[in-house]
Amino acid sequence: MRKFDDSIPARDFDNFQFVNFTSIMEKQTSPEEKEASFALAALMEVPFQYKASMELGILGHVTGKAKRVNPRPPPVPFARRQHSLTALQLQAVILHNQAMEIRTRLAPFA
To answer: 23: closest CA among 1, 49, 45?
Structure first.
């Protein structure tokens, strides 16, 4: 990957960041430290890339004929989703839970 990074043809700025995941995970440190090391290595170039893209006028500049992307709203959290169940859905959930409870009680005899 390092060779790949170095051999990418000339471009306005370096927008490819190689991170050696294996070498980070081989270290004798806690999982939290490994995660932090990986995040640091992966995100290290972001400030420079952002600065370069701003200086080059790349961000916010529309080129070509790409369709405008309209992002969908985030999903409803599960806790709130349960309260919006229809009566039929709620009945199905209750029946399912009752069936699971009966199944659990009978499990020792199965």
So the answer is: 1
Residue type, 98: Q
pLDDT(100) > 70: yes
Which phi and psi (to 5°) does residue 97 adopt? -65, -40
Q: Are 46 and 59 in contact, with CB atoms under 8 Å apart?
A: no
Please give the backbone phi and psi of residue 3, each rounded to the nearest 5 degrees, phi first. Answer: -60, -40
Q: What is the dihedral of CA 96, 101, 105, 109, to 10 degrees?
A: 20
Report pLDDT digits (tens) over 40-54: 998 988 888 888 888
Structure token digits, residue 103: 């199944």
Q: Is 57 helix (H, G, I), strand (E, B) or coil?
A: coil
Question: Could you give the CA distance from residue 16 to residue 67 in angstroms, rounded to a whole number?
Answer: 25
Residue 42 and residue 25 in contact, taking contact as beta carbons nearer than 8 Å: no
Q: What is the pTM of this model?
A: 0.46
C-alpha span between 2 and 81 (Å, rounded) = 46
